[in-house]
Amino acid sequence: MEKKALITGITGQDGSYLAEFLLSKGYEVHGIIRRASTFNTTRIEHIYVDPHKSDARLFLHYGDLSDSEQISNVIYNIRPDEVYHLGAQSHVRVSFDVPEYTGNITALGTTRILEAIRRSGNNIKFYQASSSEMFGASPPPQNESTPFRPRSPYAAAKIYSYWMAVNYREGYDIFACNGILFNHESPRRGETFVTRKITRAIASIISKKQDNLYLGNLDARRDWGYSPEYVMFMWKMLQNKMPDDFVIGTGETHSVREFVDESFSYAGLDQDEFIKIDPRYYRPTEVEALVADPDKAIKKLKWKPKVKFEELVKIMVDADMRAAGLEPIGEGDEIIKKKFPDRWWCAD
């Protein structure tokens, strides 16, 4: 029997890749999108067909994480087998500017979904998109036993969601899993996130459309992986016999400065000519270093990332050059062809 999955945040980076992956597994996929005056479905347009056609397996529903009635109605009407909760106000720097909104959407939104699942009475599996930002000031490497020490409203909201998932699992016997994912990037990363900001700027500089790239803290260190790999392990968590929580990351850490160096060098540019530091991009409280200890996922989920840091950079630079109408260098394209010959996603 065909399984049904519901994805919040389906129009985002992870949501779009996850939708493609689940479709490749034979799922009927449903996504919640916010009603707005403009469309924000660019990342899923290539897989979305007229829902009235007989071959349609992807369906979109209007909803908002701030509205519990809408959330309950969607879950009641769809009756999904699995819910992947990826929707959030997910930009860490922005969370300092809108802390109340971040708490309402990122934290309470999770409660609204869990409560809708509980009230439905159906046997629904739930995936909570937790974040490495929850570890904050805790020294690396970080694993499932590392104390949470949040350094932003976003991280605090994610911790609330993490513990609500645990409480609904233990209190109501809901199959709820937390995926504590470290930074994962791709050509579909939002343009305001630092990695995509860098690779997109390179294409604009080469095209003579941009003179400088303004950044904040170049010394912050992160564990960066490749998003399509990470969404596969969201699914694997819900296929376990018992619900559990997992850290997913590469186990390597690199600074923003290294990302700049690697990407500009790959494109044949001298970063010193273009990089400018702007204090506006510093956070009030900074997370200095995040690096995953994914030993539990390695043993239980057979986690082994294929794409390393330098390869990720090349994939993203090539994609942004192509999007700007430039000829890509090509090494990133070759990495994808070699490492993902059975590639299930349709476009970058």
UniProtKB/TrEMBL annotation:
GO terms for molecular function: GDP-mannose 4,6-dehydratase activity; NADP+ binding. One of its GO terms (biological process) is 'de novo' GDP-L-fucose biosynthetic process. Catalyzes the conversion of GDP-D-mannose to GDP-4-dehydro-6-deoxy-D-mannose. Belongs to the NAD(P)-dependent epimerase/dehydratase family. GDP-mannose 4,6-dehydratase subfamily. It comes from the Archaea. Its EC number is 4.2.1.47. The lineage of its organism: Archaea, Methanobacteriati, Methanobacteriota, Stenosarchaea group, Methanomicrobia. Residues 6-316 form the NAD(P)-binding domain. It catalyses: GDP-alpha-D-mannose = GDP-4-dehydro-alpha-D-rhamnose + H2O. CDD domains: GDP_MD_SDR_e. This is GDP-mannose 4,6-dehydratase. HAMAP family: GDP_Man_dehydratase. It comes from Candidatus Methanoperedens nitratireducens. InterPro entries: GDP_Man_deHydtase, NAD(P)-bd_dom, NAD(P)-bd_dom_sf.
